[in-house]
């Protein structure tokens, strides 16, 4: 039985495994000067336009490189309190860059200009760290998705205040699939300067990408990649996976599936008395509160996380390989636990 704990628990898509095997033939130049890395750079350009692409082993590495391109040690990164860079990266941005985090409490994981404005009142004061980048997660850690209008508003606000916008796109595929519009229109055309593009949560074995749209941020990016221990000598094995992922819209097809499974899950469990869906289901995450007596026995059969220990809010994640049968069996078992 598959779990509902994390899309990191999922396996590798068969087409991605095949791409790794194909890249294993013959020799290729190391450190990203290979055929596969050049090919996927072209594919990313066909999707997003003028973009410089670097690859990393993991999401923390992608975020650190992205934010390092944007900040100096006396500057600060504005993010939601729930942001992965704040809650789940063991202080990596601060340790690796020296820049501080300014965290903001949000009701749904999303930042707005109105929430950020009070934290900019000491720009220019030598005694304070200087906010330089707004980092948002798309989709957010609460499973919500920024609309194009919301993204444009944040980008316009940031650029007006001489700040950059970074997107932690560990689940960018799910966010873009939910919006059902051109990926470029929902990212770079909104004014995003730099973005971490997730692969591991959407069928890859290993690897994330850093997409740099703003020319100002490209100059030292490759050096930051090397300095951060994220330059893979056999980079072709990461690049080949992204070729498979981006071919024939596989990335969006898988994300559409995991999103639809989350919607089905939310629909089914919301009909159970005593179950409350706590966040809008925009992507592949469902947040809910259930009768407390049902949590432990449900976890014994299905692994998932208690997101908030105080409120007992739970998080259930769907993946590209989650099936409708698994969702229905989960919902039926939860119903039994609640009604028994």
User: Could you tell me the strand content as a percent range?
Assistant: 15-25%
CATH architecture of the largest domain: 3-Layer(aba) Sandwich
- The number of domains is 2
Shape: globular
**What distance separates the N and C termini?**
23 Å
Rg calc: 20 Å
Number of extended strands:
11
Overview of this structure, please?
The model has no long low-confidence stretch (mean pLDDT 97). The strands form two sheets. Strands 1-7-6-5-4-2-3 form a seven-stranded mixed β-sheet, sandwiched between helices. The protein has a four-stranded antiparallel β-sheet with strand order 8-9-11-10. Helix content is 39%, strand content 16%. The chain has helices spanning 14-23, 35-48, 59-70, 84-87, 92-97, 113-116, 148-160, 172-179, 221-227, 236-246, 250-269, 295-301, 324-339; strands at residues 52-56, 75-80, 100-104, 130-137, 164-169, 194-197, 208-212, 276-277, 285-289, 305-308, 313-317. The chain has two domains: 13-248, Aspartate Aminotransferase, domain 2, CATH 3.40.640.10; 250-339, Aspartate Aminotransferase, domain 1. The radius of gyration is 20 Å and the shape is globular. The two termini are 23 Å apart.
